[in-house]
Amino acid sequence: MRGRDQIATILPDMGRIFLLIGLVCLTPLLIGAVYREWSLLPAMATAPLAFFIIGGLLSPLQAPPGEAHLSVAIAAVACIWFVCALVGALPFTIGSHMPFTDSVFEAMSGWTDTGLTLIVDVDGTPKTLLFWRSFMQWLGGIGIVAFTVALSRRSGTLQRGLYRYEGRSESLMPGVVATAANMWQIYILITALSTGLILLSGISLWDAVNIAMTSLATGGFSVHTAGITYYNNVFLEMLVIPVMLAGALPFKLYYLMLHSHRRVHILKDPQARVLFLLVATGTLVTAFDLVTKNLLDLPTALRQSLFMVTSAITCTGFQNANPFEWTGATVLFITMLMLIGGSSGSTSGGMKIGRIITGFDGLVWWFRRIFHSSRAIVPFRYEGRTIPHRVAEFTVAKTMLTIFLFIFTGFLASLILLHLQAAGPFEVADVIFEAVSAMCNVGLSTGFANPGISPVSKWLFIFLMWFGRLEMVPVIVLAVGAVRGFD
Fold first, then answer.
1. Residues 6+ apart with CB under 8 A from 323
2. What is the pLDDT of residues 190-200, one digit of tens each?
């Protein structure tokens, strides 16, 4: 099958995905009607309308016989996410007259659950647009393709390829449709429970719903310019922490809790144990820095460190302190936590704890083999199972390659940003922090990513958010396929 036929094979499926997204994206219009923001409804309607037009053009196309290559399905995932960012920018450009680049930045930050924003006055932004930001993060939490596959009730090789390479996917059931459907049922249930939990802090229902959506999705958009600090509510911060952790845990655990007849112990999961260990260790290290270097009192240091470390490792992006006021050493330590990220199969970004565990086990396995005879077979164990030698080699190599790509991309992006931006109040550590925050879809900020940076820097941030959310591979496949074709 030629490259053109390969692409034609997947276009109808992409069209159906855009039609389903357009249908769901009618929801913010209801919010506009509830809050009587009638003048904003035409601007908000441009997003679902654009999805309907694109979907209507693609879905009726006749696909050639046969299945598309996996590379085409992978590249399609990258295309779908980028188109969503472009379409998601329309309400901001038309409704609040943001520059198009800033609007694409905002929409990409929304869909990818990053949380960086270029809106200066969030409090003055209409509620319809604020809900649109939260809604994009909530949909992007589990994944655009996962959502539409669940709605479409269609399975097959192509759907598995689309779903698998979206990032943050988890294998719960044998069928991809059953997996996607179960993940979304769990997601909606936890969102409702999180809203009820956050309401205990005494804030309004509007604020609670938006915080629950963006904290479970580990996105971090807020409906106030000051973010979480707007409320000056320690109880609220403590209630948000378990919601952020819930989003960063493997969703497979929730499925087992609901459907397994056995009692499920979260701490028996290796990723969960490492996650809680990183939060505890990170809190102590950061609190020590804040007390000794920033001269904060111990209660304030513990409050800030616990919340900020949890936000960093879960890749949520809520902040109750300004990292710009911290020392470079503390900033770089938080950067490391953001780079690690949450669990595989969660809504978190970053390299994922699962990969860190596999990479570490792979290094130990490699060194053990050095000290054994070349004829000796040293087993590699993964999740309690012994993995065949060739599979283990491939798994470790793939894991280490992904880790390398994250680190190299973060380094290269930081270097470019340092060359693009004129000297200012931001140190090298602040720039690295911001680049990693974008790439790992975190949203914590020192203030470097702001409306005043150059358009090239903004597009670099857009690329980093897109690249990191899809965990590198789909964007690379798309770029290679665009150059050499998909034959």
1. 308, 330, 331, 334, 430, 433, 444, 445, 446
2. 999 999 999 99
